[in-house]
Write a structure and sequence with these properties.
Strand order of the largest sheet: 2-1-4-3
Distance between the termini: 18 Å
Helix content: over 70%
Mean pLDDT: 94
Strand content: 5-15%
Number of helices: 5
Low-confidence stretches: none
CATH class of the largest domain: Mainly Alpha
Radius of gyration: 42 Å
Shape: rod-shaped
CATH architecture of the largest domain: Orthogonal Bundle
Length: 241
């Protein structure tokens, strides 16, 4: 392949632009904010799960407390009724004994219910503390998500602006390169290789390897417009004037 040495030299500029675009893409992909954001979002999910568990438990306990309050109120109503009957006229000794026995039973039942109610209320208070803590953890994690997201978006915007500038520079270089020379360069890049490198003394600028003397002699003996390739990496080897 033949190509004007000036066009070949522009490949070095294109390779540098492509290298910078690669660095920008790598940096964008590996920003520490990505990992920080993923961790903060996981903390939000964990805190939300804790909130749901605490809310569910609190709801169950509230229903238990309400049930016990109804049961205690029912016992108290029966106590008042029995006491009213016991203090009234027309109650014989047997009925009085039965009423007193029921009052004793109701008193014990009321004591058991009130003790159970107190235990559940204490547990409900503890669950309320857990719920407040989980909600606080969720708020902290949500704030961190917002902070990291903002920081990441700022860095990404800067990187995207840099990429836009490099894309523009690339477009300008591509527009003036011969089609066959550019196709050769792009073919190499499609393989994941560096497309072009300068021959610096006896070293390839693309792979940084020392080249064989015989190969170097052959390359340097070719006309300046001959397109040469590195024997090691295959990159277009741009010779200095």
């Amino acid at each position: 392949m033949k190509a004007d040495p000036t066009a070949q030299a522009k490949l070095l500029q294109l390779a540098e632009v492509d290298a910078e675009l690669g660095r920008l893409a790598h940096r964008r992909k590996t920003l520490p904010e990505h990992q920080q954001l993923a961790e903060a979002e996981q903390r939000v999910r964990d805190a939300q799960d804790a909130v749901v568990r605490a809310e569910t438990r609190a709801g169950d306990l509230d229903r238990d407390i309400a049930r016990l309050e109804r049961d205690v109120e029912g016992v108290r109503s029966r106590v008042e009724r029995d006491r009213s009957l016991l203090s009234g006229s027309g109650v014989n000794a047997k009925q009085a004994t039965e009423l007193q026995h029921e009052l004793d039973t109701l008193a014990r039942r009321q004591g058991v219910l009130e003790e159970e109610q107190l235990e559940i209320m204490e547990e409900r208070e503890a669950v309320g503390v857990e719920l407040d803590h989980a909600a606080g953890e969720r708020k902290t994690a949500e704030d961190e998500v917002a902070e990291v997201t903002g920081r990441r978006d700022t860095v990404v915007a800067d990187l995207d602006a840099s990429r836009t500038g490099r894309d523009r520079a690339r477009g300008e270089l591509v527009a003036v390169l011969p089609a066959d020379l550019l196709a050769d360069y792009e073919r190499l890049r499609a393989r994941g290789q560096v497309g072009a490198g300068a021959l610096s003394e006896s070293r390839c600028g693309a792979c940084r390897l020392e080249l064989d003397r015989t190969f170097l002699s052959q390359i340097r003996g070719k006309p300046a417009d001959d397109v040469a390739h590195c024997e090691e990496c295959g990159a277009i080897l741009v010779r200095a004037k």
